[in-house]
Design goal:
alpha+beta; 4-stranded antiparallel β-sheet; 6 helices; 7 strands
Length: 235
């Protein structure tokens, strides 16, 4: 019980240390918006901040997306546990989840996912233009020995098909499913190591980043394959 209380107190003060560098709006997904707090009215929080390189804009955010906001070092929590609305977690549990999401945004870099997905996208795209000797022989047999006019045996020997478009779908699903171990150096809140709700928040954002990296990498790889075909095609 004492340990749980200590973790709660640590999480509270650590979150203030992170978010209180300026008036801050802490979103439930771990995003933090900096600016000058104005008011909360009609389920909307108004603040003056920066958007699209424009300063001093009056912006608004729906309060149901916000965990808390900090003004002059004082935190006001907007999240309310309400089982009727599906908000089953307590304030402290959501605080830990939000801190986990915040850390994932700061420290989790899905570089391997991006580069491996790009390599797979490029490989599939190039393989898609490969015209095999078996396909060539089959064409000859079906066309009385006449060779194909638009295809030649080898890589870049035939035009690309729609097959590579399935690569981003498959990779994003594959990288979004498995759980993984969080590295100690990815955890900014060291005292929350092993906390169930912190891990839940971290994994939620990390999986989103892995999915995006898989889609981005594979699409770039497919694009490079199409460019390679347009330059090196032999048909």
């Amino acid at each position: 019980m004492i340990k749980i209380s200590a973790v709660i107190v640590f999480g509270f003060f650590f979150s203030l240390a992170i978010f209180a560098q300026q008036d801050s709006i802490v979103m439930l997904n771990g995003k933090v918006y900096r600016g000058t707090f104005n008011s909360v009215e009609n389920d909307l929080l108004f603040y003056t901040g920066k958007e699209k390189k424009q300063d001093d804009l009056l912006l608004e955010i729906s309060t149901d997306r916000i965990f808390s906001y900090v003004v002059n070092g004082t935190e006001t929590v907007l999240y309310v546990q309400n089982e009727l609305k599906g908000d089953y977690l307590t304030v402290d549990e959501v605080r830990f989840t939000t801190l986990g999401s915040y850390d994932a945004r700061q420290t989790f870099k899905p570089r391997f996912v991006f580069w491996s997905s790009m390599a797979i996208g490029l490989g599939v795209s190039i393989l898609d233009t490969y015209y095999s000797k078996a396909s060539y022989d089959k064409f000859l047999a079906a066309n009385s020995g006449l060779p194909p006019t638009n295809s030649k045996v080898g890589f870049f020997g035939t035009g690309p098909t729609l097959m590579p478009i399935f690569v981003p779908l498959v990779l994003s699903a594959s990288w979004g499913l498995p759980t993984f171990k969080i590295k100690p150096d990815q955890i900014l809140q060291k005292d929350l190591y092993g906390n169930e709700f912190y891990y839940r928040g971290f994994h939620r954002i990390a999986k989103q980043k892995r999915i995006f990296a898989a889609v981005k990498g594979s699409v770039i790889g497919i694009g490079l394959g199409i460019i390679s075909y347009s330059i090196l095609r032999i048909n």
